[in-house]
Description:
By secondary structure, this protein is α+β, with helices and mostly antiparallel strands. 36% of the residues lie in helices and 14% in strands. The chain contains nine helices and ten strands. The strands form two sheets. Strands 4, 5, 6, 7, 8 and 10 form a six-stranded mixed sheet that branches. Strands 2-1-3-9 form a four-stranded antiparallel sheet. α6 runs antiparallel to α7 (221-236) and α7 crosses α9 (261-275).
Amino acid sequence: xxxxxxxxxxxxxxxxxxxxxxxxxxxxxxxxxxxxxxxxxxxxxxxxxxxxxxxxxxxxxxxxxxxxxxxxxxxxxxxxxxxxxxxxxxxxxxxxxxxxxxxxxxxxxxxxxxxxxxxxxxxxxxxxxxxxxxxxxxxxxxxxxxxxxxxxxxxxxxxxxxxxxxxxxxxxxxxxxxxxxxxxxxxxxxxxxxxxxxxxxxxxxxxxxxxxxxxxxxxxxxxxxxxxxxxxxxxxxxxxxxxxxxxxxxxxxxxxxxxxxxxxxxxxxxxxxxxxx
Length: 277
């Protein structure tokens, strides 16, 4: 039996929607009218259609757990010619944080909760339990693949899958257009001033990575500052380990990129409001 088809059948049996990939990570259509792009659709895109048939058969929407489609004559040649297997993470209630290089992996280790990791050709996939909005380039060399997106299956990975954390969800959020005035305050300590996630080194590295993220912004600086503040607060805003010194470091990094003190205050206040802190 074709190894890719065998893998696809096993994944589908575990409720993971699958599809065959051509060379170049391009998916096949999954109905006769769309085989080999005969319908004129866009199987290389991550959204389905336009299409002459009534079925969701392009991109991530081609992924399925239906044995009738997986074993269909339409996909028989696709599996023979396939260069790999892809899956729809959102359809399996998963989120993939796609880290493209060593720098991105270092950021994840400092900023994200430990979870299952899968080696890729250039970096790693970090898998979390839970679906969310997908987004590309949420920070340098980091993509989020979940709902309405497909990811290449590269094996089961190593480690236990952690629940999808707020800090990952925050990576795709944009700052609200309307500023809500609020006083800038650090949440009252609930953990004795100590970070319960790992160690104090975890917090220090997280602040350092946040400073680096702001410093590396070449465009959309204000949005980057807001998302960075949101990510820091998502991880540390409730445990009481943030101090005024940490906040000052973040504000200083933002002002070095041209942000005014008022912009910093507004972004911090918006992040607090968004998280209900």
